[in-house]
Amino acid sequence: MQRLGTRSPRVGALIVLAGACGCFPAVMHGAHVEDGWIAGVTAASTSGDTHTEGDEGGIYLRQAMIGPFVGYGSASSSPAQPGYYIGAVVPVVFPFAQIDAYLELPPALTRPVSTGVGFTASAESVHGYAMFGADFDRTTSWYVAGGYGSRQASDDYRTPSPVWFGNAGIVKAYGYLRTQLFVEYAAGRIPGSCFDDPVTSARTCDQGRRGRAFSAGISLGRQQHNAGNR
């Protein structure tokens, strides 16, 4: 029996590996902001190039988020007013929660589509994005988003990992339930290595090699209002 306060090597390795991975920007909303609170869970798979940081291998350029989320939206009160959404995702393994802040531009300026800009941030990364989308019908919408961001490496002897990213999804409402199906893509560089010259103390850094990551997933949330009451 393990003693309290200890972890098996396998669990410890999993935690270290997760701590070295940057997450995909978690966008748990469509281009058009809905009023009120929403809470739920999101899960996705990840594929693509992997690399090693420190003693841990099998690290993706960006990792899919798995865990609960919560958010609050304020829809435009008139066509000339913007809307906004603020939310957070707390992964079940990865130790850094991620926040998302999104501003929908006034509908009068962007019709017939909904358009906005936002950013996601955690303790190790910041990603900015632009988004647009539209309704298929009263309960179903689509969106496309893309942007740029960087995550800090796991130690001081590695360079940051920048990426261009994009995602697309469909949001379907069933009463209070919101289902979001999405795919994500990131292309950029893994962290490069840095070395200190023992004579001059000057630091030299290598540019990290290029990498890509893919993700596909689903989020399920309970919205504060019933879609049938719109």
Structural class: mainly beta
Number of helices: 2
Strand order of the largest sheet: 1-4-5-6-7-8-9-10-11-14
Radius of gyration: 20 Å
Q: What is the second-level CATH architecture?
A: Beta Barrel
- Secondary structure tally: strands: 14
> What overall geometry do the principal axes of the alpha carbons give?
elongated
- Provide the number of structural domains: 1
Structural description of this entry:
The protein has 230 residues and is mainly beta. The chain has a single domain (23-229), classed as Lipocalin. Helices cover 7% and strands 53% of the residues. It is built from two helices and 14 strands, in the order H-E-E-E-E-E-E-H-E-E-E-E-E-E-E-E. The chain has helices at 9-19, 107-110; strands at 36-48, 50-53, 56-60, 67-74, 83-89, 98-104, 114-121, 125-135, 140-151, 161-174, 177-189, 194-196, 203-205, 210-223. Strands 1-4-5-6-7-8-9-10-11-14 form a ten-stranded antiparallel β-barrel. A two-stranded antiparallel ribbon has the order 2-3. A hairpin with a 3-residue loop joins strand 7 (114-121) and strand 8. The longest helix is centred in the first third of the chain and has 11 residues, at 9-19. The radius of gyration is 20 Å and the shape is elongated. Mean pLDDT is 86; it is low at 1-20.
